[in-house]
Design a protein that fits this description.
0% strand, 232 residues, 13 helices, mainly alpha, homodimer
């Protein structure tokens, strides 16, 4: 990393993606060391050996860095759970592996997780529901679509439409719980995942009942309100 | 208010509760006008016409003001929905009235709601799950206990234990949604309440099924993890 920074300080960023990456890596390190609020875009540029104008070219502000961070987490999450998604397993097994895989991925960022969530709540752009967050959000929801689509036994048709978004919202709630989790290595969040995941089994069982159609309709109406674009 | 402030500036706070109230009122006004982060305890004291030492006697820091604010909101909420809780109604009717009553109570604070939630996420003391928040939390959960206990038709025994905390967690999720709701008068949160509340009916229906016992056991295990004391 230090060698790379030296190289970038002296050349004109040969590979644009590398410069983005360098800025993000530097930003995450400074957020960890100095705190999110205390880290300015100028400080990130200086630490990365870039002119401020160059850093601003890639990220207009810290909100955009947060977006890129979300994006990277989703990519890392997908890589981490690709085998699980490609394999066979019950809905509960797949969901458990996907959530624990996510906690593995974000584990190193716990020090400033709170700052990011605060940012997401304080700025409409950084909210996971914003237009600006559409890319990482879609990546994350796609994982839950895969969780549902590949589950064996198959998830009943009636709940298949609503379930991925519902699971994604539960996943957001777990992320929030993790942010405030002060237990060692956030083991409490691990226990919450283990205790909550088995609740999908009765959900599936209910989805097979004759009156489940009206419930899933109502659920879809509630999800539609949550998933409306913030800008609408 | 201005007259009171003048009086307090000149006397030695005849009624302790009035001084607390004055500090909180002043703080909320300044949070609204200047933002939460930019408002110092010293500025609150000065604006309230108190010596800093006097203000610090009542609130050691802004976290404690946030606690007092939570407390007041719960008190106001209870006053607002007392008639609903005393009356008869279905679980869905009671829950709907209680949630809308809550949105009425917090409506005026939307301007700095995000700052408070950020504080709650950034500071373990201000989290709604902390020991320090026990009083307002218990007040709020007590409202949901009343919602459940007074519902007619009666809520099935099996789910009666877990339901109040489950509803309180949903209430926290709705609060979070409200914080990031940029729609006019947060009408989107109102629509979410209207779309989500009917989902309690199938929950009750499921609780009457012969296999519901193992589900509510699992639900109680998950709730137990969530509700563990942060300090534990």
């Amino acid at each position: 990393m230090d060698l790379n920074m030296f190289k970038y300080a002296r050349t004109m960023s040969p590979n644009p993606q590398d410069t983005r990456q360098l800025i993000l890596d530097t930003a995450l390190r400074l957020f960890e060391e100095r705190g999110y609020a205390a880290t300015t875009m100028r400080a990130i540029a200086a630490e990365a050996g870039l002119a401020p104008s160059n850093a601003y070219y890639w990220f207009a502000n810290k909100d955009e860095l947060v977006q890129e961070f979300y994006n990277r987490i989703q990519d890392d999450h997908l890589v981490r759970v690709a085998d699980v998604l490609a394999g066979a397993g019950s809905l509960a097994e797949r969901l458990s592996a996907v959530e624990h895989g996510y906690l593995d991925v974000i584990g190193g960022y716990h020090g400033f997780g709170g700052a990011f969530v605060s940012t997401a709540l304080g700025s409409s752009a950084a909210s996971p529901f914003s237009d600006e967050s559409a890319r990482p959000r879609e990546k994350s929801i796609a994982i839950y679509r895969e969780v549902v689509a590949g589950a064996r036994p198959a998830v009943p048709e009636k709940i298949r439409g609503a379930l991925p978004e519902l699971l994604w919202l539960c996943h957001l709630a777990i992320t929030l719980f993790w942010v405030t989790d002060s237990s060692r290595d956030q083991e409490r969040t691990r226990r919450l995942v283990d205790a909550a995941v088995p609740l999908v089994a009765p959900l599936i069982r209910v989805a097979k009942l004759p009156w489940a159609g009206s419930v899933t309709d109502q659920l879809e109406r509630a999800l539609a309100v949550v998933m409306e674009r913030t800008s609408a």
